[in-house]
Amino acid sequence: MEIFDAFHLARFQFAFTVAIHIVFPAISIGMASFLAVLEWRWLNTGDQVFRKLFLFWSKIFAIGFGMGVISGVVMAYEFGTNWSEFSRIAGNVTGPLLTYEVLTAFFLEAGFLGVMLFGWQRVGPRAHFFATLMVAAGTLISTFWILASNSFMQTPQGYALDKGLIVPVDWFKVIFNPSFPYRLVHMTIAAFIVAGFIVSACGAWHLLKGRRDKAVMISFSMGLWILLAITPIQILVGDAHGLNTREYQPAKIAAIEGLWETEKGGTPLNLVGFPDMDAERTRYALQVPHLGSLILTHSWDGEITGLKAFAPQDRPYSPIVFWSFRVMAGLGLLMLLTAVLGLALRRGGRLYETRWFQWLVLAMGPSGLVALLAGWVTTEVGRQPWTVYGVLRTTASVSPIGSQQAGVSLLVLAVVYPLVFGMGAYYMIKLMRRGPSLDAEHVGHPEHPGLSNRALSQSFK
Amino acid sequence: MQVDLPMVWAAIVGLAVFLYVVLDGFDLGIGLLFPFFAENPPDREVMLNTVAPVWDGNETFLVLGGAGLYGAFPVAYATLLPANYLPLILMVVGLIFRGAAFELRVKSTRTRALWDLAFISGSALAAFCQGVVLGSLLQGIRIENGRFTGGPFDWLSAFSVFCGMGVVVTYATLGCGWLIYKTDGELQRKMRRLMRPLASALLAAVALVSLWTVLGLPSVAQRWFASGNLAWFMPVPVLVVACVAGIFRAVRLRREATPFLLTLAICFLGFTGLVISIWPNLVPPSLSIWDASASPSSQVFTLVGTAIVLPIILVYNALQYRVFRGKVREGDAGYH
Fold first, then answer.
1. Residues of A with CB below 8 A from B62's CB?
2. Residue B194 is part of a domain; what is its CATH number?
3. What is the pLDDT at residue A32?
4. A318 pLDDT exceeds 90?
């Protein structure tokens, strides 16, 4: 197998660009809804601390959003430059879905973002809140379409093959394909969790630094409430998604579990181990009897198909998905533990004074993003060797380009991405380290536009 | 009545591309004009603030153009993009630096000069590469059975490089017109002084590209001069000359918006000339809009949404321009 041919270079480029890209939309999706909540609370209570928090987080949101736009443009063109056969063959389905995403989501976000960020002095509070809501709605609609497209690639239905092309027959079936509802909910909650941990970790940092002002305490507390509400739901949704995957993509489940034989009378769970694709077994497996069946079939002795039931060329690469899945699921449990610990400390009234817990929350800050990436690696690598599951192989999807072209573009992006997106992340972290402004109560009274102009422009700098 | 779906879609994608060219054109133009203005007085700050609220939306038209092409004409998407592999990669790299500079320049202190450089070179690279892609499209792309069969450097020619420079001049003129409209005082005066040489260069570029295509590409000459429609096509070049004359006059009379509007008109005329030259091909010389089309089911499905949503998009994008109407001045609150 040639590693540096155009095919592998293109795959590596896609994995690398999409992995960096998804970080920023995930932050934007979660943060946009959080900002809408903050502004709603401000309008409702009149408490200036919410407005201060809104101004603070909207600056971080703006950087994340901008990074998402520019890395997203690359994605929209990469389908054509590196994966033109995929575009030609599957474009009849995935093209319209992407067009809908641009029309109903990207424009909504971009069209109201200007007002949300810079429009405080030009529109009234209600119009401004409307703009914030539209931006948040845009991020969620975007999730809807891109997940529809991705889910079609995972569990395609509602199409026909016509002269080798995938042609849509029933758009309702195409969009609401079997795995779509699970993926959509799982990804949306994941984005909320990403934002929840970033917000509470930022709060934890400033608590550790000794700040005890209202803005910091509210960041910490609100983030933890959100996490307490959604991490249990996420675990349940993930479980349901697993059952769905077992039904429609059994090879992926077998690879995730490092399971080779189809066992009768109950399948154990490999807690850890090292799947070996050539030897067709999982080395050093630490097993819990029946737990595999229990988790994946919700029964004591349910049957799970092993990898050997699939032809070798149809098997996903188990060593990657085995571990990426365990990273995601392990972090999920840690997140739940963190949120529950927060609740326990709250009951004792020690939430803001327990340093080890603040260190824990700070350390868990990036956990939402790590789990999200691990989850995407699991589902995308688990889809291999197909781009459209069971229909179009990845090897048949690549552009007719040479390895020089693919190599040059990969090199260029490999230099540019860490530089640009590293700087973007650096400024986001820098803003978070500085924290919400300390100058208290008169940050931009809308009743005193003269005063608010000055205060606001200061806080924007 | 039978609707010719590919025709409708060609019109929509054409509209998206045109809107992108003029809207992001003036954003990119600001980057191109950046080197002429110093940090102090803070001209650069003001120049950026004129587009800070709208550049995201403007760049989104590029994504609409790409996605519309992908959704309605997958064969064109799957041939045009591999054929222009390197210029497109460089274009997105340019856009990455430009966009990052937009967001990060104001947050930086020590590295501001570097971000300014990123903004200038990113804008220039993106504009130039877009022109190169246009040139390579005009000179034709080798396609067999719906697949690109040419080499990795087919796009590179003296003609495509010249088109790249032509687009740079076009965007600089758009940016200059926009800044005359959105600024006042010393900055506006400087822009007025720049407008005349830029408009002259634009006229020269348009004339040269037109001559070059007519002389170099028999199919284009055939279309303009031998199809019996010359009388219909003639207003296009005549109006271009009239617009340039109008810009000179408007600058002399110190009009605020007219230079920008006339530059938009020149872009529209140039785009019309392009359509006349390649119609009904989407990718010359052989791929027509009908050959390149997606299945009717795909085109209908997307058309329903587009017909409803696109007008709404245009309305609220226009509203955003309205919210941020008026002159932008040094020290204005609320930006960044």
1. 73
2. 1.20.1630
3. 93
4. no
Instruction: Report how many domains make up chain B.
Output: 1
Is A148's pLDDT higher than 90?
yes
Per residue in A212-270, pLDDT tens? 888 888 889 999 999 999 999 999 999 899 888 988 988 998 888 888 888 787 888 88
Question: Is B254 inside a domain boundary?
Answer: yes
pLDDT value of position A3: 67
Longest dimension (CA), chain A: 76
For the segment B265-280, the average pLDDT, to the nearest whole number, is 89
Q: How many A-B residue pairs are in contact by the CB < 8 A criterion?
A: 253
Tell me the DSSP string of B278-296.
HTTEEETTTEETTTT---H
Domain, as residue range, for B87:
25-323
Is 80 exceeded by the pLDDT of residue B314?
yes
> Which three-class secondary structure string do you get for A311-366?
CHHHCCCHHHHHHHHHHHHHHHHHHHHHHHHHHHHHHCCCCCCCHHHHHHHHHCCC
- Identify whether B200 is part of a domain: yes
Minimal C-alpha gap between B139 and chain A (Å): 19
Please answer whether residues B102 and B52 qualify as being in contact, where contact means their C-beta atoms are separated by less than 8 angstroms: yes
Least confident of A310-324, A377-391, B66-80: B66-80
Which amino acid, B285?
P
Counting every residue, how long is chain B? Answer: 336
Query: What are the two backbone dihedrals, phi and then psi, of residue A159, each rounded to the nearest 5 degrees?
Result: -125, 170
Chain B neighbors of A97, CB-CB under 8 A:
71
The model's pLDDT over A91-123, given as tens digits with 9 standing for 90+, comes to 889 888 988 998 888 888 888 888 888 888 888
Nearest CA in chain A to B333: A457
- Kindly report the average pLDDT of chain B as a whole number: 86
Structure tokens belonging to residue A280: 């067709």
Flag if A77 and B54 touch (Cβ within 8 Å): no
Chain B residues lying within 8 Å of A63, measured CB to CB: 103-104, 107
Taking a contact as any Cβ pair under 8 Å apart, which residues of chain B between 40 and 69 contact chain A?
A: 52-54, 56-57, 59-60, 62-64, 66-68
Is B181 a domain residue?
yes
Q: Predicted confidence band at B309 (pLDDT cuts at 50, 70, 90)? A: confident
Separation in Å, CA B117 to CA A57, B97, B102, B113: 28, 9, 12, 6
Peptide bond preceding B41 in cis form (omega within 30 of 0): yes
Euclidean distance between CA atoms B267 and B109, whole angstroms: 38
User: CA B281: distance to chain centroid?
Assistant: 20
B97 near A CB under 8 A: yes
**B82 contacts chain A (CB < 8 A):** yes
> Which value does ipTM take for this structure?
0.82
In contact, A218 and A435? CB cutoff 8 Å: no
Rg (CA), chain A: 24
Structural domain contains residue B332: no
pTM score: 0.85
Torsion of CA B95, B98, B101, B103, to 10 degrees: -60
Question: Can you give the pLDDT at residue B165?
Answer: 94
Please enumerate in sequence order all residues whose Cβ is within 8 A of that of A139, keeping only pairs 6 or more positions apart, or say none: A25, A28, A29, A32, A33, A105, A109
The confidence score (pLDDT) of residue B39 equals 66
